[in-house]
Write a structure and sequence with these properties.
The chain is α/β, with parallel strands linked by helices and 205 residues long. The chain has a single domain, classed as Rossmann fold (3-Layer(aba) Sandwich). It is globular, with a radius of gyration of 16 Å.
Length: 205
């Protein structure tokens, strides 16, 4: 069973709708007891880092989420700000992150200072994979995914990077450490590719 963490941030219904269309069981996670019914969880996120972390910390779900991921070693997928929350900290705020993956979120920077792309990075972009991973099964990497962000997550271990994209410079857009995934893009807004990716996460073991 897939759980979508409902802590007041992100479009929970979009994820539930996709899983229900795939005839896969999924529920919103709104209380610690809901974790007993699931074996994977999605951490959505939009807005700013500090706002999302504050809502999570005040939701009554943080301790159980830590238990689920750290002690029970069950899979988690962080999306957009949810990906940034996986690290220790962010330039976008002053609060500490979840520290599930060693890394830090930075404002996007560009190689050529004479050509500065507009921020936020918004729209479709393709994906480059530095190494194979089952999460990309049947995904059209050239078609890519839908992005909306001004910050990106820099992991300390390059082996954790499973997807890269380009916008002024190359940046990690997909990471994986054990059973913890982070995606900068929005699979719930990425049509057939997003649906396939969410299916692959549900089938991850």
């Amino acid at each position: 069973m897939i759980g979508i963490l409902d802590y007041g941030v992100g479009n929970i219904e979009a994820f539930l709708k996709i899983y229900h269309s795939l005839n896969m069981a999924a529920i919103p996670v709104r209380s610690p007891s809901d974790f007993d019914s699931i074996d994977k969880i999605i951490l959505p996120g939009v807005g700013s880092f500090d706002s999302a972390m504050e809502k999570l910390n005040n939701s009554g779900l943080r301790d159980t989420l830590d238990e689920f991921v750290i002690n029970r070693d069950l899979p988690l997928l962080g999306v957009c700000i949810g990906m940034h929350m996986l690290g220790r900290s962010s330039e976008e705020g002053s609060m500490g992150g979840l520290s599930y993956i060693s890394g830090h979120t930075e404002k996007m920077s560009f190689i050529d200072s004479n050509i500065t792309p507009l921020l936020p990075h918004m729209g479709w972009n393709n994906i480059i994979t530095p190494r194979q991973d089952p999460i990309w099964k049947d995904v059209n990497l050239e078609q890519g995914f839908y992005f909306l962000h001004s910050y990106c997550f820099r992991v300390e271990d390059s082996e954790a990077i499973i997807g890269l994209s380009d916008y002024g410079s190359r940046f990690p857009c997909a990471v994986k450490s054990g059973g913890v995934f982070g995606f900068q893009f929005h699979p719930e807004k990425s049509l057939t590719n997003g649906i396939q990716l969410l299916r692959n996460f549900a089938e991850f073991s």
